[in-house]
Design a protein that fits this description.
By secondary structure, this protein is an alpha/beta fold. The chain folds into 2 domains: 176 residues, Rossmann fold (3-Layer(aba) Sandwich); 92 residues, Pantoate--beta-alanine Ligase, Chain: A,domain 2, CATH 3.30.1300.10. The chain contains 12 helices and 11 strands. Helix 8 packs across helix 9 and helix 11 runs antiparallel to helix 12. The radius of gyration is 19 Å and the shape is globular. The N and C termini lie far apart (41 Å). The mean pLDDT is 96.
Length: 283
C-alpha cells in the first residue's frame, strides 16, 4: 500500500496506476475504521482495478467544535487495517491540502430541500462542509467509482446531488453499500468507540425502533408509528433528535402513506453525549 500526504504526489501516483485504462475506486473516510469501512473497500476491489482510500477528519462539516475535538482517531490501526485488506493507495491529507485557500472551504452548493431537513436541520452547514471536502477529494482522485455506506443515507443523496450539480454524475458511478451492524443491530460507526459496553447494548434500541416501524408499516397515518418508535428509544435512555419516515427518492418527510411510495425510516439519537444515526429501507 502506498501512503501519500500531498495532493501533487497523489495525482502522479494515480496517473501511473491508470496505465492501460485501469478503473479507480474511491472510499473516503474520516478514519477510526471498522468493518463497515472495510466492506466498502471489499466492494471497490471487486468492481475496480485499484482503490484509493482517504482519511481526513473534515473540520468544515462539524458544526460543534467539541464533537470535532472528540472525534476518535486510531491512525496506526487504520493504516494496518487498510494494508491487511488490500487497499492500494491511502491518502492522508492535511486540512491545508484539502483547503489550500478559502474558496475551497466556502463554496456553496445548491442542495435545496436536502440541506434543510433531518441532518441538515439539526446540523446547519454540515452538508456544505461535506460537499466541499468530497468535491475537492474527487477532483484529486478522479475516480471512476465512489463507494459510500447506507448508514449515512441522507449524505449519500447529498453527494449524488452535488455530482449532478457539478455534471459529474456520468463520470463517477456511485455505489451505496449496505450498513454493517454490531451483533445487537447497532449500525457500526466510528463514534461507537466512544460508548461503553452497556451504552452499546442500550443503543441497539435504534435498530429495534426501525425494525418495529418496518414490521408495523401500514398505509394511512404514520404519526402513531413514529411516536411508538420514539418511545422505544426513550425506554433505553436515548434522547431523540428525530425519527422520521420519508420518500427514499427525495427524503420528503411523510405524515401519511399511500401504500405505494418507497419509504425509508431515519433516526438520530444521543446516547449520553454521543450522537448516533441509522436508517432502514421499509418496502
Amino acid at each position: 500500500m502506498i501512503i501519500v500526504k500531498k495532493a501533487s504526489e497523489l495525482r502522479k501516483i494515480i496517473s501511473i496506476k491508470r496505465t492501460g485504462a485501469a478503473l479507480a475506486g474511491f472510499v473516503p473516510t474520516m478514519g477510526a475504521l471498522h468493518k463497515g469501512h472495510i466492506s466498502l473497500l471489499d466492494v471497490s476491489k471487486n468492481k475496480t482495478d485499484f482503490t484509493v482510500c482517504s482519511i481526513f477528519v473534515n473540520p468544515a462539516q462539524f458544526n460543534n467544535k467539541e464533537d470535532f475535538d472528540n472525534y476518535p482517531s486510531t491512525l496506526e490501526n487504520d493504516i494496518q487495517l487498510l494494508e491487511n485488506n488490500g487497499c492500494d493507495i491511502l491518502f492522508l491529507p492535511s486540512a491545508d491540502e484539502i483547503y489550500p485557500s478559502k474558496e475551497y472551504a466556502q463554496r456553496k452548493f445548491d442542495l435545496g430541500y436536502l440541506d434543510t431537513v433531518l441532518e441538515g436541520k439539526f446540523r446547519p452547514g454540515h452538508f456544505q462542509g461535506v460537499c466541499n471536502a468530497v468535491y475537492r477529494l474527487l477532483s484529486l482522485v478522479n475516480p471512476d467509482s465512489l463507494f459510500l455506506g447506507q448508514k449515512d443515507f441522507q449524505q449519500c443523496l447529498v453527494i449524488k446531488k452535488m455530482l449532478q450539480l457539478e455534471n459529474l454524475e456520468k463520470s463517477v458511478r456511485v455505489f451505496i453499500c449496505p450498513t454493517i451492524r454490531e451483533a445487537n443491530g447497532l449500525a457500526m460507526s466510528s463514534r461507537n468507540m466512544l460508548l461503553s459496553s452497556n451504552e452499546i447494548k442500550k443503543a441497539g434500541a435504534i435498530f429495534q425502533s426501525l425494525q418495529m416501524i418496518k414490521k408495523n408499516l401500514r398505509s394511512g397515518d404514520l404519526s402513531a408509528l413514529k411516536e411508538k418508535a420514539k418511545a422505544v428509544l426513550a425506554q433505553n435512555d436515548l434522547k431523540t433528535d428525530y425519527i422520521e419516515i420519508a420518500d427514499t427518492d427525495n427524503l420528503q418527510i411523510l405524515e401519511s402513506w399511500d401504500g405505494n411510495k418507497k419509504l425509508v425510516a431515519l433516526a438520530a439519537a444521543y446516547m449520553n453525549k454521543v450522537r448516533l444515526i441509522d436508517n432502514m429501507l421499509l418496502n
